[in-house]
Amino acid sequence: MKVPYLLRALLFVIIVFNGNSAADELYLTIEEREQQAVLVVSAEVVSLVPLKFSEDLYERKVAILAIQNISKGNSNAEFILVSVGYYWPYGMLNSQDINVEVGMKGTWFLTKEIETGLFKLNSPSDVVINPLN
Q: Whose CA is closest to 44, among 71, 82, 75?
């Protein structure tokens, strides 16, 4: 009888003190997101395109953003490429997929992938959508 109780107590302690980095990402403030980001832009999604690198198993879903304003970072480009997930076979979804649609406007807190040079979102909350679309 005491073994299940001890295991539950140990599991609780591990969860509480170890934390969940994915869950922690959801509770970052705007200021913390801006500190982590390499580039912060106000932009609109003008297109979604497939792109496959040699190390990719599936095609990436890449959003082309038209930059309207740059709050942080250096970019002289009018458009940037942002990796927002993969085109999974049979229309499957993955927990890492971020729902992005053409015409979506908002503030994007972006980091850069070292391997590909593409910008990326670390979590769905790295996009603050403009409700006046």
A: 82
CB neighbours of 50 closer than 8 A, spacing ≥ 6? 59, 60, 61, 62, 87
User: What 3-state DSSP class applies to 125?
Assistant: helix
CA distance 88 to 130: 28
pLDDT in tens, the chain (133 residues): 455 666 666 655 566 555 544 455 556 787 888 888 889 999 999 999 988 888 778 888 889 999 998 888 877 889 999 988 877 776 666 555 677 889 989 999 999 988 888 898 887 778 888 766 5
Closest CA to 25 of 113, 94, 127: 127
Chain position carrying tokens 């580039």: 39
Q: Write down the number of H helices and E strands in the chain.
A: 3, 6
CA distance 99 to 83: 12
Q: Is the model's pTM score more than 0.70?
A: yes
